[in-house]
């Protein structure tokens, strides 16, 4: 028998900007099988479609010294099961116009499928097979690994693709959160089939996973089908133990200068510690970040792109994780304009704390950002696929449903006075961390202006300084 907890909250919509506007999650039930598997079912009968998602609490933070292992495993799940070859599974989904995908990030690995209601009986068993019994066929795995290695080599040709990885490495040091999700050329090249099988065996287990189904189905019938397909899944050995994945280190102003000798522009990231995904201030901080750098008419984009022409775009963001997170402002500019762009970005950032007519977030600015955020929020959770993804994040990252159900209330309740308190509490002001990717000979003196400089070479494997 399954233990069942039913949430019966309705989805309610109203015009954006109205004080009474609400957005709440549709009803869904959470159950747990005797083997420990979490099952989340959300009925949505608007269209005859079903989105199913398996979420495993494991990702790059669990790679250890084998960076890229979770990422490789997550993609290799799709290479076929012990009963059906990859070609047969692909044909079964393609023939029905269904979608099957997977992957792994920092803290979770997912397998997801979208198909018509009428195809559930045929495709759900295949989905269950690849989650529980992937084949990791050697030849297919080697081809996948080689493609990923080639992609890693190409990525460093475009600094904007790798700047975030360097930045996280800078802030988290040797902690698990610093592990590059895609791995490095060296670490990925060294991975073997047995490593992928071992990762799957350790972390793909019912007491460390959830199966989420959103769409047009009968809940009792779907419950029985999930129990039939996943109820015999067994956990081997002790369950993975919770651990600390690290917190950002920003004890003094630092600059990482990543040398790309052929660069004609500088890509930069500036910031420091941020928030965890379940932080109670997550929602109002989305509004405040909208003012600073979260939309085209933000302060940063206005100053660095529109008013000065120093760049084609600038933005800021909180990147929250389950236990902590980082905040960053980022852009790029011509090498000769690096100092001007950095100074203007910092000057604009300091407007958050400035007093008087030129500083702080006034009511008109705040109201505009609130209306924008409220208008953007509901469309993010319209489809079954989007809702399944949200439920997966809630499971993997420990996000309470109240953060969603109270979204409009928390946005409406943000005042200029509260905004000032949140700026002081969460936006890093001192000991800013700065990443610069560009031609070191052109910007080395500029870099020294902003903190203690550590030089790296973009051609070196990985995303950390080379220890000599």
UniProtKB/TrEMBL annotation:
The keyword Signal applies. Residues 43-183 form the Peptidase M16 N-terminal domain. InterPro entries: Metalloenz_LuxS/M16, MPP/UQCRC_Complex, Pept_M16_N, Peptidase_M16_C. GO terms for molecular function: metal ion binding. Residues 191-371 form the Peptidase M16 C-terminal domain. Residues 1-20 form the signal peptide. Keywords: Signal. Transmembrane segments: none annotated. It holds the Pfam family Peptidase_M16. This is Insulinase family protein.
């Amino acid at each position: 028998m399954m233990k069942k907890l039913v949430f019966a909250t309705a989805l309610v919509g109203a015009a954006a900007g109205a004080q009474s506007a609400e957005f709440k999650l549709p009803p869904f039930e959470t159950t747990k099988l005797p083997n420990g598997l979490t099952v989340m079912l959300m009925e949505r009968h608007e269209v005859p479609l079903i989105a199913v998602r398996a979420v495993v609490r494991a990702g790059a933070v669990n790679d250890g010294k084998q960076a890229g292992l979770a990422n490789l495993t997550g993609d290799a799940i799709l290479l076929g099961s012990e009963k059906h070859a990859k070609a047969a599974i692909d044909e079964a989904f393609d023939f029905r116009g269904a979608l099957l995908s997977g992957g792994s990030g920092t803290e979770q690995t997912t397998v997801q499928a979208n198909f018509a209601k009428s195809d559930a009986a045929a495709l759900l068993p295949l989905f269950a097979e690849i989650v529980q019994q992937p084949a990791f066929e050697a030849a297919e795995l080697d081809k996948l690994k080689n493609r990923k290695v080639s992609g890693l080599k190409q990525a460093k040709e475009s600094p904007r693709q790798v700047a975030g990885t360097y930045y996280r490495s800078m802030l988290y040091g040797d902690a698990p959160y610093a592990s590059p999700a895609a791995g490095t050329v060296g670490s990925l090249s060294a991975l073997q089939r047995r490593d992928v099988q071992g990762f799957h065996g350790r972390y793909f287990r019912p007491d460390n996973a959830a199966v989420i189904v959103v769409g047009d189905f009968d809940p009792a019938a779907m419950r029985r089908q999930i129990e039939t397909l996943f109820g015999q899944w067994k956990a081997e050995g002790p369950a993975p133990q919770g651990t600390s994945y690290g917190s950002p280190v920003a004890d003094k102003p630092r600059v990482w200068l990543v040398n790309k000798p052929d660069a004609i522009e500088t890509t930069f990231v500036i910031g420091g510690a941020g928030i965890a995904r379940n932080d109670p201030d997550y929602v109002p901080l989305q509004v405040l970040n909208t003012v600073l750098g979260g939309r085209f008419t933000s302060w940063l984009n206005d100053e660095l792109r529109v008013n000065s022409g120093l760049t084609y775009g600038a933005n800021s963001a909180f990147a929250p994780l389950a236990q902590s997170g980082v905040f960053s402002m980022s852009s790029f500019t011509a090498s000769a304009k690096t100092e001007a762009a950095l100074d203007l970005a910092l000057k604009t950032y300091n407007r958050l704390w400035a007093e008087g007519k030129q500083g702080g977030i006034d009511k008109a600015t705040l109201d505009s950002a609130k209306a924008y955020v409220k208008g953007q929020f509901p469309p993010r959770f319209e489809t079954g696929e989007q809702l399944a993804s949200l439920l997966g994040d809630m499971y993997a990252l420990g996000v309470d449903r109240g953060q969603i159900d109270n979204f409009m209330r928390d946005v409406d309740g943000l005042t200029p006075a509260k905004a000032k308190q949140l700026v002081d509490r969460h936006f890093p002001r001192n000991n800013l961390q700065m990443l610069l990717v560009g031609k070191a000979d052109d910007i080395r003196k500029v870099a020294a202006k902003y903190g203690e400089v550590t030089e790296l070479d973009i051609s070196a494997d990985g995303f950390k300084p080379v220890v000599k």
